[in-house]
Amino acid sequence: MLLPSQAAIRGRSIVLAAFVAALFLLGGCAIGPRVVTPEPPPIPEGGDAVPEQNEIVLTDGTQLVANAPWGRIKIEAGPGLRRVYTWRDNRRGVILEPRNERFAGSMGIHYEGKPPVWEAAEGITQVDLEEGQRRFETVDDAMIWMQIRRLRYSYTNDGLVVGWKPKGDTLVVELWQFYIDGKKPTSLPGAEDSRFALGPVEVVPQRMSPVLVYSDGRTEPYIPPTTPTSDGNDDSSRTASSSQASNCNWFKNLFGNCADDASATDAADSVTAQGDSEAASQAATAAAAPHPRCRQCGCKQRGGRRTGSRRSRRQGPEGRDLGQGRQRA
């Protein structure tokens, strides 16, 4: 019977050790945190059809986007009694309930409390929702009613009114269609039609951020690693670029004037630097030239000061002291 050689035994041992190490590594990766992007919060399926006696504002398949005092809100209608609300990057759906009798003059649809299908959104776990029609005799009555409610509404000239706010753990939303003396108004004081956009439903799921999921179920926000800069000049270049971008408004950028402004700025800087260089050169030349009066006496004056000695300045052409000659005379 042939026995394996020592080299073969060592080779098998190395292979086995590598296999065991691989298992350990795979096991460690399996129990480590994973980066997962969660699914958007669930939205309930469509509700029952709206009863004919109930007065609503939005029909199936339409949406309203309004810039209200508390921010932008989007309301999607349908199918049936379902309404989907989007605010501050949160999107949630509720099946509203039809009213069986008028409440404050409205025979609309509503929901108050915690919906069956609802995931907490920034602490919001309950809702107080209203949609219906409000009828007033005069415009003044409608304006006074909005002031009494204190929900800070936005509204159009034809009486479309939206108000919403987060109130503790409750999302409060009201959507109304005003009627004045039985008809939609044509003008309301303080109305801003540009704050509203009414059209067909465009489903935009909530954007979700990735999280770290551990083996025990814990989750933590995932922070992507930052890439270090290659050199130290990147920050300064980004600062300069941001400064130039801040000085260039959207109007100039639209017509391509930002590049012209940058070129003009560079040219002005070049002219200024050239002028400074020429001025410094002229000053140096003037400082090095002898004083006009010193051309006769032969002294060396630089920068407004004579460098020759007092005795040498008083000597004549033959080297005699002019002061002594005057004394002998």
Verbal overview:
It contains eight helices and 16 strands. The protein is α+β, with helices and mostly antiparallel strands. It has helices at residues 6-31, 139-149, 233-247, 250-254, 257-288, 294-297, 310-313, 322-328; strands at 34-36, 62-68, 71-77, 82-87, 90-95, 97-98, 109-113, 126-136, 154-155, 160-167, 170-180, 196-200, 211-213, 219-221, 301-302, 305-306. The model is unreliable at 300-329 (pLDDT under 50). The longest helix has 32 residues, at 257-288. Among the domains are: 62-200, no CATH class; 247-286. The chain has a six-stranded mixed β-sheet. The chain has a five-stranded antiparallel β-sheet with strand order 5-4-3-2-12, with no helix packed on it. The chain is 32% helix and 25% strand.
Could you name the key traits of this structure?
single chain, alpha+beta, 25% strand
